[in-house]
Each structure stands twice: as C-alpha cells, then as structure tokens.
Design brief:
binds pyridoxal-5'-phosphate; four-stranded antiparallel β-sheet; Aspartate Aminotransferase, domain 1; seven-stranded mixed β-sheet; 385 residues; alpha/beta; 2 domains; Aspartate Aminotransferase, domain 2
Length: 385
C-alpha cells in the first residue's frame, strides 16, 4: 500500500514551499552574523527585522515586543522562569493539562522555593476561570494557561482568565504554540502579557520560535551571553529559521480562516465516519471549543500504540494518547486530569489534520480504522488494561 496520510500536524508540519524559498538564500548567500555592523551582517539583520515585523503584525503588537527563541519549549521556559525570577519568590498558577514545557518549568520553580497551584479541568479538558480566580493569593506573581491543548484540542477560556489576571495586576502567560497561525490572536483583548509561539506547527521550520512580551512586563533573561534580542535572549539568532517563521506566519494570516473552515469539515467527517462504523468509541476534548484540525478518539479496550502501529502499516501517521511502559498502560497527564477512565484512556489516538489533508485521506483512514480496531479487540481479552 503506497498511500501516505499524515495526520500528526499538532506534532509538526511540512515546511511550506514558499517558506523554503524564502529561507534558502539565508544558508549560503546571506550568511553574516546579524549582530555584525558590516554589510554582510546588516543584510542578515534585515531578514530578522522583516520576520519580527511579520510576527508583530499578526499579533498586532510592536516588533520590539517580540523575542526570538529556538523553539516552543524554550519560549515556555523563558516566559515562566523569566516572570518568576524577575519577582524572586511567590506563587504561580498553571493548569494540570499544560504542555510539559510549562508544567515541568513550573515544577522546577517549585523545587527552587516558589509555590505552585495547578488548577484542574472538567471532563472536556477545560479550565474554569473561577478556579483560577479562587487560586489567586496575595503573593501570586504569574498565571500561565495554554490557549489550546495539543492532545485533545480544547481551547481554554483565556479571555476570561486574562480579565481576572488584569483585575488583580498579575502577569498572564499563554502558551499559544497550538493556536498561533491557526486562530486569530488579539493579545490586548485576551489580556495576555506573554505569549509563546513556534514555527514548526505552522508550516515553518523546526528550531525557530518566539515569545511576545508586553512592553513594561518585568521579566529577566534565562539565557545569558551576548546582547542579542535587546538583551532578553542571548545567542546568535537562527536567521534562516526565523526568516521562515516570519514567512510562515504571513502565509497563515492569509490562509488560516479558509483553512480552518475546510479542516473543521474534514475533522467532523473523520469523527462521524469512525463513530458510524466502530462501536465503543468516544471523542475526547471539547465538542465545540476545539482546534479546527484535532480529533482525539478514545477506543475502549484497545491499546493506543497498537492502533498507531497498525495504522502506520497502512501508511497513516497519527499519535498515541497513552503509552505502554513495562506492561502497564499509562494515559497522558491530560487524559488523567480530564478523569477519562483507564479502559477508555488506554485507547486514545490523536488525529491532527492540516493543509494537505483531503476528503480521500479521511475516507482512507476511516476505512483503515474499523477493521484494525475490530482485529485488535478480538486479540485482546475484554477489560484487559
Ligand atoms: C502546547 C505546546 N507547547 C509547547 C510545545 C513545544 O514546542 P516545540 O516543539 O517548538 O519545542 C508544543 C509542541 O508540541 C505544544 O504543543
């Protein structure tokens, strides 16, 4: 079977051909160090400046408020630690369903003496803004809540949380790695002071990302060295990658609305197709407040990894929501926080669609899932986990 269907766009995306074309000269022709003051350096600096303007335009912020980094993980670490360390001590609030880049950065701060509250979520993976309000203490120094969850796609009520943060004068960081370039992002309306984004989720290259830091937000650098990025992030910038990030976001600003509509239709076709043909399957995440291209499926009494590997044999790439370690099924921290029972969580499979996904791809995947799940269930004693 030669057909290949990639349904793992929340993990990474193919670089858009227009992005590749714009990046290419920055490898062998425009290779100067953007910090150098000669013409070679200035030319590279112009590429960085244009990318900064494009990102700033997308977020309707000032280019000076954009700091480039090496990835969403670095952006999250920088935002969370930078906000905390700038205040020295105090209390942080995050949620149980954050990406590990935020959760583990917060845990590391906790180990250093900061206090931490991880608010829970409901069965759809949604944070209740009132839980955030109740968690606030006199010494709360930062709130970090993601915009959309990468596993189940649930979009958090960041506007309501931003309003609460603003009322209390607490800096608000949002990990928008899964929404930047997919949904409109108005950082003023959402009350956001710091926002993480990454290029490789939006048809840009890996290793290029950034953080929006609202002017006046007290934040310290976490990486020390030269005077790059207005002393906020030391290290020679990944010029080609950042140029690609700028082009990728420009393309997304143009295409994201129409693509969100198209991908939502395909996403629903996938869910309806699977639901019609496979017994004991559920959709996880919020039914409506969800990323356009994300379908997280829970197949009862089947192991995630067996489905992922079975679909891989058919040329289909999806990702597992539970891992099998030493004979035990371990659901992801997101499914655990959502309270998904183990017999359902063990069979969590995420399909994330993108710009190249077609109706034929979706029908092919639905056709492949039904016999695979039937076969795996026959091979597995019911109730085994
Ligand atoms: C919500 C979220 N935050 C952060 C990251 C980390 O981004 P990167 O892969 O660019 O380090 C990811 C990647 O999957 C993500 O989905």
């Amino acid at each position: 079977m030669s057909r290949k269907v990639y349904l793992d766009h929340n993990a990474s995306t193919p670089v858009h051909p227009e992005v590749v074309a714009e990046m290419l000269p920055y490898f062998a022709e425009i290779y100067g160090n953007p910090s150098s003051i000669h013409a070679f350096g200035r030319e590279a600096r112009e590429g960085l400046d244009l990318a900064r303007e494009r990102v700033a335009r997308f977020l309707t912020v000032s280019p000076q408020e954009i700091v480039f980094t090496s990835g969403g993980t670095e952006s999250d670490n920088f935002a969370v630690k930078g906000l905390a360390w700038a205040r020295g001590n105090g209390h942080l609030i995050t949620s149980q369903v954050e990406h590990h880049a935020v959760l583990r950065a917060c845990r590391a701060l906790e180990a250093q003496g900061f206090d931490l509250t991880c608010v829970g979520v409901d069965g759809s993976g949604m944070v209740d803004p009132d839980d955030v309000r109740r968690a606030i203490r006199g010494d709360t120094i930062a709130i970090s809540i993601m915009h959309a969850n990468s596993e189940v796609g649930t979009i958090q009520p960041v506007e309501a949380i931003g309003r609460i943060a603003r009322e209390r004068g607490i800096p608000f960081h949002v990990d928008a790695v899964q929404t930047f370039g997919k949904l409109p992002l108005d950082v003023d309306a959402l009350g956001i002071d710091a926002l993480s984004f990454s290029a490789h989720k939006i048809y840009g290259p890996k290793g290029a990302a950034g953080v929006f830091i609202r002017k006046g937000t007290k934040m310290v650098a976490v990486q020390h060295g030269g005077e790059h990025e207005r002393r906020r992030r030391a290290g020679t910038e990944n010029v080609a990658g950042i140029v690609g990030l700028g082009k990728a976001v420009e393309i997304r600003a143009r295409d994201m609305h129409i693509e969100a509509e198209r991908v939502t239709t395909l996403r629903d076709r996938l869910w309806e197709g699977v639901r019609a043909r496979v017994p004991e399957v559920r959709l996880s995440g919020h039914p409506v407040q969800r990323l356009p291209g994300t379908v997280s499926l829970l197949f009862r009494h089947v192991e995630s990894e067996s489905i992922v590997l079975g679909l891989d044999l058919k040329g289909i790439g999806v990702s597992a929501g539970s891992a099998c370690t030493s004979g035990n099924v371990e659901p992801s921290h997101v499914l655990v926080a959502m309270g998904v029972p183990l017999d359902w969580a063990m069979g969590a499979v995420r399909c994330s669609l993108g710009r190249s996904t077609s109706v034929e791809d979706i029908d092919y995947v639905v056709d492949a899932i039904e016999p695979l799940v039937r076969k795996l269930r026959q091979a597995m004693p019911v109730g085994a986990a």
